[in-house]
Amino acid sequence: MTQKMILNFPAGISGTPITYELIRVHDVKVNILKAEIQPGQIGSLLVELEGDQEKLEKAKQFLISNGVRVSPVSSKVSYDEKRCINCGNCVSACFSGALTIGAPDWKLHFNPEKCIACKLCLTACPQKLFRIEFSTIN
Ligand code: SF4
Ligand code: SF4
User: Fold this and answer.
1) Closest Cα to atom 7 of ligand 2
2) Of all protein residues, whose CA lies closest to atom 6 belonging to ligand 2?
3) Least packed by Cβ within 10 Å: which of 58, 67, 94, 117?
4) Is-same-fold flag (2-73; 76-132)?
5) Does domain 76-132 sit in CATH 3.40.50.150?
6) Domain regions of the chain by residue span
7) What is the CATH number of domain 2-73?
């Protein structure tokens, strides 16, 4: 199985080889989809981890015990659904297919499992409804 998640590394550990340890010690495949890392500051990764459920759970515990903040994409990327006018601008910008509009309700739908935190929806939305907290620790 695969799980997509955002990892935020506090400043003190951003230089340590944690993803390497995930692969070598925990036998989990790590696919890095996006990275924002600056030496001495918070580092952030969007990763897809692949392994069986037990290995993934141990890998997550290993990350947390090393001070890494582990968040599902849905907690970091969201939009204000109540104010959405379903204009479709963000759907055109979202090349990963995470945002869709279609039958039967013709309302915007967000699939966090397809989101790659590219932030293109931020500028595409005329209502400025998107919130993306990729590089923040909260
Ligand atoms: S951040 Fe990128 S991939 Fe995610 S919903 Fe917005 S446009 Fe789509
Ligand atoms: S661009 Fe904004 S208003 Fe338009 S469908 Fe997307 S979220 Fe809704």
Assistant:
1) 84
2) 90
3) 67
4) yes
5) no
6) 2-73, 76-132
7) 3.30.70.260
Q: How far from chain centre, in Å, is Cα 14?
A: 18
CA geometry: angle at 114 spanning 41 and 2, to 5°?
A: 80
Ligand 1, residues at Cβ distance < 6 Å: 77, 93-94, 96, 98-99, 115-121, 132
Amino acid at 10: P
Kindly state the tokens that stand for 122: 């931020």
C-alpha dihedral over 31, 133, 53, 63, to 10 degrees? 80
pTM to 2 decimal places: 0.82
Instruction: Write out pLDDT tens, residues 31-76.
Output: 999 988 776 677 899 999 999 999 999 999 999 998 899 999 988 9
